[in-house]
Each structure stands twice: as C-alpha cells, then as structure tokens.
C-alpha cells in the first residue's frame, strides 16, 4: 500500500522486533502473577491499536489538533484533577482510571498535550525584546507547573520529569539570550544543592516543607545503593546468571514482582539470554538515530520541536529504565517503551510516532 511505503523501515523494523520481544516476555509474565495471565493478549491488542493509530493518523489533517492545542491541554489537566478523586490506587499512588477492567493513565495523555501545545506556541512566538522573553518563559513555566503539581499529588515522579524535558526542549528552541540559560542552570544547581544540604543536615525542616511522603520517596532515591531491595537484587542476579542464549516458556530464573513493567529489561535477559539485551539496545539505538535524522533534515519548526520533545522523553526512558535494571540508577516507575506491559503508555508512544509521521508529509 502507498501509505505503508511512506513509512521508513529504519523505524518500523526495530519497533516490530521490540514488540515481538515484548510479546514473548508477556507469555512468561503469567509465571510472575495471576494478574498477568492475559498480558500477552492485552499487549497484542495494544500493539495492534498502536499501528492502527499510525495508519489512521496518516489520513487525518492534524493542523486542527495543533490549532486547538490549548483546549487539549486543559482537558488533560482536568483528567489529572479527576484522577485524584476518582482514580484507582496502586502501590501507594492514585494515577489511573479503571474503566471496565482497563486502566488509563491521564499523565501519559498530558505528555502529548503539553508537547503539542509548546510546539504550537514556539512556532507562533516572535521574540523582539527582553519583555517578550520574560512573557513567553513565564507562560511555559506556568503551563508546566500546573500538571506537575497535580501529578506530584498522585504521586508520579516519572511524569514530572517528562514534563520538564518538554519544557527544556521548548526553551532551547526559543533561542534566548545566553544569560537566560546561565541563570536557569545556576538556579537549578542552587535549588538541588539546597535540597541535599537540608536532607543531610536539616531533615526535620525538610519534612515540614515537603511533607513526609515525598521525603521518604527522596530518601529511597538517595539511598538506593545502600539498600537495593529484593527486586533489584533479583534483577541483578537474573542478568548475572543468564547465559548468552536462553529460550524458555515454562520457567523464570528468579521472581521479580514488577518484571513485566519496570524490570522488563532484566526479565527479557532472564527469559532469552544476554543476546536479547543487546538486541533491545541496538533497536533503541536505530530508533533514536531515525528521529535524530528526522530533526536534522526537516525545515518545519513545529516538527523539529515536537520530535525533539518525544526524542528527549524516549531517551530518558531508555537510559533510566536500563540503568535502573542494572542497579546504576534509583528505582522509579519508568517503563521501557514498546517493551513494558501497559496500554496507555504504549498507545501514547504510537500516537507520538503517528503525529511525527503525519507532520513529515
């Protein structure tokens, strides 16, 4: 089909390989928990819907989506408010709507709406004075802060980092005076330094400021190497004891509670050997190169900004999830795109790709 021929195999072959690896892992996920008994079929449906989204998006004019991006953003923020009251709780967080047995995570939709909104805003921004710089920066910061605060209350630290990545990309494309970037970097370092000083020397004061819940989350992040925990230890043992090649649908090396989601990289190596880890990294490398090439070759500013936002988030998820699986980074709920079990994250990733391909036409 003509539509399919437009799609670069440099992108879709690695995507399909990751999807196949994911589905193989979902077969063994039933050995982790009965919750995952139908994970293979659900994941297959989500992948099918993902490619359907890409196909349909090639037929739709998305100019109106960007034109009404602010209303899309407001809608996603409204969902973030509603999930605090009507959402389902899991692992101490209230991040999901449970609809007829299916979970939907509004923060994933907010990533998309924020990326669309900022791409549209930067495209229509013409900076001529210092005042213009201040106004656009305030707008971007406020628009990022609103969903960040709402997600902080859930809590979902990973989503906040994604929002900040989108903000960072938008600010880069503004091409502001260099002193703005120096100022932001300095303030960020001062803020982080203050937090660490208070954490180590004034813990009682810090708890009063940020609350006990967030303090203990931060405590877990900072001290992750001291008490790695059952899950990380089993993930490291799984990777360390796996052979180069392994193929087994009837057993798992070790029990990792969040194997199909946060620890899918270690789970895959445990199921199919170290070679599967190498293939996963290679596939992501090819996908990243595809998007870098897309950004460097296009003259469409809205495509540059939107694709850069997605690439920034994609790189963060790759580096953080794999680093977390290897014990190099603190454990957070950061899924590995196109591999980890989950519907909302999977569909939003494919929607990003569909929009990028649509804007490229």
Which blocks of ≥5 consecutive residues have pLDDT under 50?
Answer: 1-5
Query: What is the assembly state of the chains in this entry?
Result: single chain
Distance between the termini: 16 Å
Helix content, binned percent: over 70%
Q: What count of helical segments does DSSP give?
A: 16
Could you describe the largest sheet, including whether it forms a barrel?
A: 3 strands, antiparallel
The topology string of helices and strands comes to: HHHHHEEEHHHHHHHHHHH
Beta-sheet strand percentage? Answer: under 5%
Can you tell me the overall shape? globular
The helix-and-strand class reads: mainly alpha
What is the average of the pLDDT values? Answer: 86
- The counted number of beta strands is 3
Q: Looking across the biggest beta sheet, what order are the strands in? A: 1-2-3
Rg estimate, integer Å: 21 Å
Summed up:
The protein has helices at residues 2-5, 9-29, 39-57, 63-67, 69-86, 106-123, 130-152, 157-174, 178-201, 203-210, 212-222, 229-241, 264-272, 274-297, 301-325, 343-360; strands at 88-90, 93-99, 102-104.
Your description of this structure?
This protein has a domain at 1-60 and 229-361. 71% of the residues lie in helices and 4% in strands. The chain has helices at residues 2-5, 9-29, 39-57, 63-67, 69-86, 106-123, 130-152, 157-174, 178-201, 203-210, 212-222, 229-241, 264-272, 274-297, 301-325, 343-360, and strands spanning 88-90, 93-99, 102-104. Mean pLDDT is 86; it is low at 1-5.
């Amino acid at each position: 089909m003509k539509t399919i021929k437009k799609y670069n195999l440099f992108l879709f072959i690695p995507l399909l390989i990751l999807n196949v690896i994911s589905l193989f892992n979902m077969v063994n996920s039933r050995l982790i928990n009965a919750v995952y008994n139908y994970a293979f079929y659900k994941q297959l449906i989500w992948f099918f819907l993902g490619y359907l989204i890409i196909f349909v998006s090639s037929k739709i004019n998305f100019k109106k989506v960007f034109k009404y991006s602010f209303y899309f953003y407001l809608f996603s923020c409204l969902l973030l408010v509603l999930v605090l009251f009507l959402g389902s709780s899991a692992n101490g967080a209230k991040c999901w709507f449970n609809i007829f047995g299916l979970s939907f995570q509004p923060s994933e939709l907010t990533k998309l709406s924020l990326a669309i909104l900022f791409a549209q805003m930067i495209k229509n921004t013409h900076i001529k004075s210092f005042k213009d710089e201040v106004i656009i920066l305030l707008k971007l910061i406020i628009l990022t802060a609103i969903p960040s605060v709402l997600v902080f209350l859930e809590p979902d630290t990973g989503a906040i980092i994604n929002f900040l990545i989108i903000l960072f990309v938008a600010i880069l494309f503004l091409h502001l005076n260099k002193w703005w970037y120096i100022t932001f970097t300095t303030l960020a370092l001062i803020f982080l330094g203050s937090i660490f000083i208070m954490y180590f020397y004034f813990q009682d004061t810090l708890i009063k400021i940020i609350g006990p819940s967030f303090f203990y989350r931060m405590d877990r992040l900072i001290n992750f190497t001291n008490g790695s925990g059952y899950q990380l230890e089993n993930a490291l043992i799984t990777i360390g004891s796996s052979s180069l090649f392994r193929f087994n649908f009837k057993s798992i090396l070790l029990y990792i509670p969040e194997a199909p989601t946060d620890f899918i990289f270690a789970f895959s190596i445990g199921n199919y050997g170290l070679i599967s880890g190498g293939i996963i990294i290679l596939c992501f490398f090819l996908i990243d190169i595809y998007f870098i090439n897309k950004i460097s070759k296009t003259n469409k500013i809205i495509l540059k900004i939107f694709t850069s936002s997605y690439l920034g988030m994609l790189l963060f998820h790759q580096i953080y999830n794999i680093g977390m699986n290897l014990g190099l980074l603190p454990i957070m709920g950061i899924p590995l795109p196109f591999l980890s079990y989950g519907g909302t994250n999977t569909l939003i990733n494919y929607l990003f790709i569909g929009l990028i391909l649509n804007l490229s036409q």
